Amino acid sequence: MLRPINPSGPRIPGLSQAMLVESGKLLVLSGHVPFDSEGKVVPGGIAEQLDQVFANIGETLKAAGTDFNGLISLTYYVCDLDQSMLPDIRAVRDRWVNTEQPPASSLIGVAALFNPDVLIEVEAMAVIPESMSA
Length: 134
Known about the structure:
This protein has 134 residues and is of the alpha+beta class. It has one domain: CATH 3.30.1330.40. The protein has two helices and six strands. Helix 1 (46-64) runs parallel beside helix 2. The two termini are 15 Å apart. The mean pLDDT is 90.
């Protein structure tokens, strides 16, 4: 269904340079934020909020008939991005995504998001397997 494309040259750990979709239907996810089931922002730092974001993405993927193995792309928007955040972001990501076939990813630092308590927002793309898309 998916094939990572990684040409020779420098590599960033934990992501594929591109993902080729060989079958299935494309699912485009809006930005997911760290809201709990009551619509409140999860307290804590970047790791706690990103963990909730991935839990929310997981619910969307499940509702569409796929899971984290179907992820092809992630775009992170991080408030006041600092290099010291990268280990936490990578550690949380690696608990949720297929690290053997990681999605293509981008990380963008922003000045602010829609809510001052939200530190991170993540957009995603995934593939629903043909067997689920009939």
